[in-house]
């Protein structure tokens, strides 16, 4: 089974139904059956010399150490195993199961009323609800590579994800980055470094219809440092001066420009 599905991607509805049946059976397995299967699986993989194990086999052992006896360990045999290089992103459609295994990433999630979990987490799990909501589509994952313009790299998921896009801004020490006004609000995460930021030029303020909001952005200057998060209102530009000794890295989450072209 492991070998057969390693690189097999089926978009046919018949295969999707078979996949759905098997995946649901795994998630609904009894505690006794799960313990027996995991014991057999980890023992078998453990007998394989470390240098000869596949990436997926090694992952099973790693997950079993982190979450002993968890049903999520078995999902490693079903889901795509994706390794992202620095600067790459991935598109996760609604109701697609996923788990972050290692490393750091910035996640931007569209409006959602809940997050449903089934395994590999200490948080509340709701297997029946998850089973009912999954898509069971067998497709290759979509890897995002940014469009770079100056200091800014933009991750645009495309027309099917017009609720958001992510921008990665990197400013060398001593340099300044000027951000143009965006028609919607923006969440700004200071990922690395420190800076002085000025928001709201005179021209920007003319675009703000609400008089009570103008004062919030009237050439306001403030210091930013790693780990802080800010909100920038619609139609407000900004200027960031890197005041640290290293690179300033800031992530922005905002609506896709397609939203405003309708």
UniProtKB/TrEMBL annotation:
Superkingdom per UniProt: Eukaryota
GO molecular function per UniProt: mannose-6-phosphate isomerase activity
GO BP terms, alphabetized: GDP-mannose biosynthetic process
One of the Pfam families matching this protein, by short name: PMI_typeI_hel
GO CC terms: cytosol
Domain Phosphomannose isomerase type I helical insertion stretches: 17-79
Classification via InterPro entries: Mannose-6-P_Isomerase, Pmannose_isomerase-type1_CS, PMI_typeI_hel, RmlC-like_jellyroll, RmlC_Cupin_sf
Protein name: Phosphomannose isomerase type I helical insertion domain-containing protein
Taxonomic source organism: Pycnococcus provasolii
Lineage: Eukaryota, Viridiplantae, Chlorophyta, Pseudoscourfieldiophyceae, Pseudoscourfieldiales
């Amino acid at each position: 089974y492991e070998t057969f599905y390693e690189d097999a991607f089926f978009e046919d509805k018949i295969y999707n139904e078979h996949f759905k049946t098997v995946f649901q059976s795994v998630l609904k397995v009894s505690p006794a059956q799960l313990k027996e299967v995991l014991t057999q699986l980890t023992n078998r993989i453990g007998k394989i010399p470390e240098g000869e194990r596949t990436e997926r086999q090694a992952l099973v052992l790693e997950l079993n150490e982190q979450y002993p006896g968890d049903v999520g360990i078995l999902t490693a045999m079903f889901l795509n195993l994706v390794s992202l290089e620095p600067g790459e992103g991935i598109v996760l459609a609604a109701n697609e199961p996923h788990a972050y295994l290692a490393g750091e990433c910035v996640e931007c999630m569209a409006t959602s009323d809940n997050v449903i979990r089934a395994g590999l987490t200490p948080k509340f799990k709701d297997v029946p609800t998850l089973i009912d909501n999954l898509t069971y589509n067998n497709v290759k994952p979509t890897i995002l590579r940014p469009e770079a313009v100056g200091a800014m790299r933009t991750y645009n998921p495309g027309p099917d994800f017009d609720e958001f896009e992510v921008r990665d801004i990197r400013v060398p020490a001593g340099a300044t980055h000027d951000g143009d006004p965006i028609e919607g609000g923006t969440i700004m995460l200071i990922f690395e470094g420190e800076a002085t930021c000025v928001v709201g030029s005179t021209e920007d303020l003319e675009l703000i219809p609400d008089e009570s909001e103008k004062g919030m952005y009237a050439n306001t200057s403030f210091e930013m440092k790693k780990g802080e998060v800010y909100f920038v209102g619609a139609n407000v530009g900004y200027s960031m001066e890197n005041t640290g000794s290293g690179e300033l890295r800031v992530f922005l989450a905002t609506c896709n420009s397609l939203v405003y072209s309708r």
